[in-house]
Amino acid sequence: METVEGPRISGESSDGPRIRGESSAGPRMSGESPEGPGPRNSGASDAPRSPGDASEPPATGESSSSARGGGGGADPHPPAADDPISEVLLGWAIAVAGAWASFRLLPEFAAPFGNAAAWALVPVALHVRAGRSLEAEGIAWKSPRRTLAATFVCAAVVLPLFSAGFLAWFGARDWRWPGALIFIFTFIGQLFFAAIPEECFFRGFVQPRLGALFPGERPRRILLLPLTRGVVLGAALFALTHVAFEANPVSLAGAGRLLTFFPGLVFGALRQATGDIVAPALFHALCNATLVTLQRGYVH
User: Fold this and answer.
1) Does residue 104 have a pLDDT over 80?
2) How far apart are CA 239 and CA 270, in angstroms?
C-alpha cells in the first residue's frame, strides 16, 4: 500500500511515516528506527488523533469525506441495476430468432427439436448468467401432489367446457371420435416439444421477471384464479408470440391467435398457485391434445 508522506512531528523517525492511529508502542513498519518501544522525544503526542486532524493527511485511496463519515469510500463498480423489461425483451428476441431459424433452416424432422431448445435453453441461460436459482424461478417440480391436484381440477373444469363450445361452434353432427391413440400420442408430443419449452420460457422466465416490477404484490382471485400483473403480462406476451408465428399475422387467423391470452392466464395462475412450471406444462399439453383431437374428429 502506497503511503503519502505528511509533515513529521518533532522527534519522529525519518525512516517512514507511521500508520495512522497506530500506538507508539505497537509494531513498526520495516525500515523504522531500531530503538524499539520506549519513551518518545518531547513533542510527540501519545493522544489518538481524530480523523479530521489537519496535521495528518488521510491514507492513500481514502477521501476526506469517507474519513469524516467513518466508513469506506463509494464502490467504484456498483452492481448493475436490475432491468426485467430489457432482459425479457432480449430473451424473447433470441428465442424467437432461434425458433424461426429452426423451422426455416433445419430439416423437417429436426425443426421441433431446435424450436424446443430455443424456448427452453434461453431462459435457463439468462437465469444462470444472472446468478438466479432455477428452482426459485419455478423451473423445477416442487410438489408433485399439489401439481397433479391443480392440473386435474383445471382439466376437469376447463376442457369439458372448451370441448362443448368447440362442437357447438363448428357443429357436432359430422364429428366422430378419432380414437384414444390420437389424444395420447398428441399429448406426449405436445408435452415435450411445445408445453415444457414454452412454459419454461413464459412461466419460468417472463412471468417471474415481469413480476419483479411489482414487489410485494399479492395475487387477486378472479374466477378462482390467482392473478397478478406478472401473470397478465406473461399471458399477453404469450398471445402476441402466437400471432407472430402465424403465416399472416394481420388476418382473421392472426386475430384468432390472440385468444391464446386466456389459456395463458390459466397457465400463469397454475404457476402462481403451485410455484413451478410442471402444472402449467401438463395442462398446456392437455389443452393442445384436446384441440387436435377435436379437429381430427372432422377428418373421416
Assistant:
1) yes
2) 17
pLDDT score at 270: 97
Per DSSP, the three-state class of 225 is strand
- Per the CB < 8 A criterion, the answer to whether 32 and 15 are in contact is yes
pLDDT tens-digit readout, 182-210: 999 999 999 999 999 999 999 999 999 99
Nearest to 287 by CA among 269, 267, 272: 267
Indicate whether 83 belongs to any domain: no
Domains identified in the chain, total number: 1
Q: Measure the CA–CA gap between 134 and 142, rounded to whole angstroms.
A: 11
Q: Residue 253: which domain range? A: 139-296
Domain assignment present for residue 217? The answer is yes
- Give the predicted TM-score (pTM) of the model: 0.73
Instruction: For 235-285, write each residue's pLDDT tens digit.
Output: 999 999 999 998 888 888 888 899 999 999 999 999 999 999 999 999 999
Asked if 217 and 211 touch (Cβ cutoff 8 Å), the reply is yes
**Residue 152 included in any domain:** yes
